[in-house]
Amino acid sequence: MQQWETTFNQLIDALLPQLQANEALTVELVAEESQFTRFNQAKVRQTGNIANGALTLTLMGKERSTTETEPYTGDKTVDWPLLLTALETLRAELPQLPTDPYLVLPEGDAQSREVYEGQLLTPDRVAPALMPPLQGLDAAGLYAGGRAARAYADSAGQRHWFETSTFTVDYSLFTPAGQAVKGTYAGREWEDAAYADTLDTSKTLLAQMAHPPKTNERGQYRTYFAPAAVAELMTMLSWGGIGEASIRRGGSALGALQRQEKPLSPHLHLTEDFTLGQVPRFNQYGELAPLTMPLITAGELVNTLVSARTAKEYGIPSTYAEGGEYLRSPALAPGTLADEDILAALDTGLYVSNLHYLNWSDRPKGRITGMTRYACFWVENGQIIAPIENLRFDESLYNFWGTQLMALTQSVQFMPEVGSYGYRDLGGTLVPGMLVDNFAYTL
Amino acid sequence: MTATPLRTIADPADLLQAAIASFNLAADWVGIRATREESVYRSQRDGKPESNRRSLAQGAMVEVLVDGQIGYAATNNFTVAGLRQAAQQAFQQAKAAAPGKIHAFQPDVRPTVLGVYQSPVEKPLKTLTTGHAHELLSRICQGLKVSDQIVQASASITAKEVDTWLASSSGTQVHQRFSFFSPSFGATAQDGAIVQTRSNNGRGHSYQAGWEFFDLGDELWALEQRTGEQAIELLTAAECPEMSTTLVLAPDQMMLQIHESIGHPLELDRILGDERNYAGGSFVKPADFGSLQYGSEQLNVTFDPTVEQEFASYAFDDTGVVAERQYLIREGMLQRGLGSHESQARLGVPGVACARATSWDRPPIDRMANINVEPGDRSFGQIIGSIEDGVYMEANRSWSIDDQRFKFQFGCEYGRRIRDGQLAETVRNPNYRATTPQFWGSLAQVGDRNTWQMFGTPFCGKGEPNQIIRVGHGAPVCAFNQIEVFGGAA
């Protein structure tokens, strides 16, 4: 593992001299060593570790570009032949391609290096540390942890290295009737006591789920969304939301905001915030994003995520986004509602801890459908009455982040990314809870 | 040991056997699953190149069964030394977890088998040249742009050649060679705040074949033009009305309907609770197999990994179980679930050969393969002709269902009213919602073989750690009584 960075730099130093005149090259690295221990009924279902990595080369020349991804083992004797073959393959393909008017050539000399060490459980310690505190509970979930690296280099001279050691325990606890609470313990340093404290908080909440659930009729209810639920809603902005390309091409839910046809609430302040150091600041073009960049200020769209490619196509400045123009380190600013006042402010309505399976139901109108999930309660006169049977909602962001947004909480929580499609996700979302009036439930 | 990249090895069976022979572990069973996946993705937008990507992913997972617990370790360092190190790690994983194991597995969850499989291919993927691929994509984009109101025309192809090898201490030797091809295109039309997108069957074209599915000539050009024209047509169409009515679904929407409300709820690992922390559980209970009337008597559903060219066909699952066609639902009655040997051993109900992994770096879990609704005896004309008032919908664009696979809401790209036994005016933003038992119980008419079409997707997500996998779904046109339909936001 320690040799990942050394090998990467050696490979780049060997590869760049192989370039011919008028060729440009970028190289991206993703690598990780991961321990995955999956559990159900507080017992181990599957356990193992994975070492994986990939190098992605993009060769540019004659107004064309093409890309190849190859395995990266960290062993130069294994990786170098594959890399050299990939370069030759790309070089042979380049003339067969049509010209690309929006090609972004590497430029600049930006350099960065961030390394975050951690104190993680060794593989043999994971099950013994993870499982005993779960005894007596019906618990399901996943421990995922290990080192991860992201890196970039190009023929212009830019070079970046980001490495971090992190873990997440993403779990659910269930009552005999199937009601559940969700919890996450995550960080860079494992502490048995902190894990136990996190579980204790979930156990307390689980006790409230023991009451028979209330069935609500479809209709509009005042709703408090806990930070995990707000984070789920935020993810939708990365999928046909805040990206400039999607706005330009009719694929964004924020088109109406951008055209100033529909407003959002003046309470809403969204920022791309890299100060937490959870994810790399550099992108696939080698650009370093500013530490913070406002996107929505007082409900107005002040910046969008603009990649270098989109910038070139439309003749506008880049905002250093990735090619996919998705949020990388979003932070929603807190409001004025104190945590102890949440139930009183909700008065009568729904307390929603988590949401599930969100999708646009009418994207141009900003309408999202999805389900309530886990610890969701019916509240009357500021008192929790009972958990609820899960409800389907179908509501526009121009309502819940617009005219119907009543308040955001004073406190914010960091909701870590726990996904692992391909590689373990890094980073997370910093969000408050929010109180919304007349939220529409449809089934 | 000299490090030898897999790309230089035509068939690594000997390497796998040598590695297993070199393991010195006090284990009840050891196996290796190796994968090499070569992919090409090309796309254009508005006739200009967006992406040209190749990738090679390769590696191996070693599984070790010790004290009833399977431990795994996966590496992309594909050498005997690399595999030996992984085997040692897998052994330690199993030993550490065995005291808290959920079930004492026996070696029979990894049967001993010998065999090979190869996808049917007429035009090998590597014969589609870079230049020709982009000529086709460019022409499709041009064909889609039937009007200045088309603000985006996009087209792409994804081609993958995947080899998997299984080898084990009990003598298993399997090699399967797959060829996957997924062509896709669509057009987005805009008139002010109204935006509509139409695609080729909801981008559901994924097959196990060569690129013959893309070499359609005039048929392809006509299809792309119609796609662009329908995107424009939707701009001025009326919203789908809000009402309870007869709903007719085309096979390209049936694909999604089958996947979400039959496939996932029948997965035994969901019923066992393994997925409760991520994808969710199921409203189906273990006692329901053999006794639950899942839908009307018109409903017949098979797990069928033997359909030629369907996206998720195979001869063996990723644990070596021989794949066979099985009825999941017969005349509406639930027969069996989607569960591996491991899940069957834990739950005591029948399953199928469905332990599958997205690649070498993820363990196999219960998965759909091809889940198909079998054809009935009604022609498309007979179905529509029998409906006085209803809505016909094509091509999925929005999908959401709860964690028990009970309450769902799905949206389609394109709809038509049905009036007096005829397809009538086009409607936009057609959506519907229901609960799973209500929906399948309302199945009233099932189209015949002439209406049956198969589609597929490479993007079924599930599992912790997360995995995506290929699934195929074939279905006829189907009609459902008294379904709640509705249109877009006011």
Main features:
heterodimer; A: 443 residues; alpha+beta; PmbA/TldD fold; seven-stranded mixed β-sheet; 21% helix; B: 490 residues; 2 domains; five-stranded mixed β-barrel; 9 helices; 20% helix; disordered N terminus
Kindly state the mean pLDDT of chain B as a whole number?
Answer: 95
Overall body shape of chain A? globular
Q: Provide the domain count of chain A.
A: 2
Number of strands of chain B: 24
Helical segment count of chain A: 10
Range of helix content of chain A = 10-25%
Q: Please tell me the overall pLDDT of chain A.
A: 97
String of helices and strands of chain A = HEEEHEHEEEHEHHHEEEHEHEEEEHEE
Rg of chain B over CA atoms, rounded to whole Å, is 24 Å
N-to-C CA distance of chain A: 50 Å
- Count the strands of chain A? 18
Q: Give a quick account of the main beta sheet of chain A: strands, pairing sense, barrel closure.
A: 7 strands, mixed
- Characterize the quaternary organization of these chains: heterodimer
Strand portion of chain A: 35-45%
Number of helical segments with 4 or more residues of chain B: 9
Topology:
The complex is a heterodimer of chains A (443) and B (490).
Chain A: H1 3-15, E1 24-40, E2 43-61, E3 64-71, H2 76-93, E4 111-116, H3 123-130, E5 138-154, E6 159-174, E7 180-187, H4 192-208, E8 219-225, H5 227-235, H6 244-248, H7 255-258, E9 270-273, E10 292-297, E11 300-301, H8 308-314, E12 330-332, H9 342-346, E13 349-362, E14 367-380, E15 383-387, E16 392-396, H10 397-403, E17 405-416, E18 428-441
Parallel strand pairs in A: 4-6, 8-13
Antiparallel strand pairs in A: 1-2, 1-5, 2-3, 5-6, 6-7, 8-18, 9-10, 9-12, 10-11, 13-14, 14-15, 14-16, 17-18
Helix pairs in contact in A: 1-2
Chain B: H1 13-22, E1 29-45, E2 48-66, E3 69-75, H2 80-97, E4 114-118, H3 130-144, E5 150-168, E6 173-191, E7 194-199, E8 207-208, H4 218-236, E9 238-239, E10 243-249, H5 251-263, H6 268-272, E11 301-303, E12 326-330, E13 333-334, H7 341-347, E14 355-356, E15 365-366, E16 371-373, H8 380-385, E17 389-401, E18 407-419, E19 422-428, E20 431-435, H9 436-441, E21 443-446, E22 453-462, E23 467-475, E24 478-486
Parallel strand pairs in B: 4-6, 9-19, 10-17
Antiparallel strand pairs in B: 1-2, 1-5, 2-3, 5-6, 6-7, 6-8, 10-24, 11-12, 11-16, 12-13, 14-15, 17-18, 18-19, 18-20, 20-24, 21-24, 22-23
Helix pairs in contact in B: 1-2, 3-4
